[in-house]
Amino acid sequence: GIKINGVDLISWNEKNKINEFKVLIRPLKGVQLIHQLMGGTLDKI
Fold it and tell me: Could you read off the pLDDT of 1-45 as tens digits, one per residue?
């Protein structure tokens, strides 16, 4: 398997509503695997 490290960066506005959500993943092979696995799921949203 591939070991994946990730960090979520969340920003919110003055009304405490999330206005930005970034997910940082490494290594590149992990990014490619997540993209492959989540691609179909995100298309359904």
Answer: 889 999 999 999 999 999 999 999 999 999 999 888 888 787 777
19 token code pair: 């206005």
Which of 1-34 are b and which e, b meaning 16 or more Cβ less than 10 Å from the residue's Cβ? eeeeeeeeeeeeeeeeeeeeeeeeeeeeeeeeee
Those residues with Cβ within 8 angstroms of residue 20's Cβ, 6 or more apart along the chain or in another chain:
9, 10, 11
CA distance 27 to 20: 23
To which residue do tokens 């506005």 refer?
Answer: 13
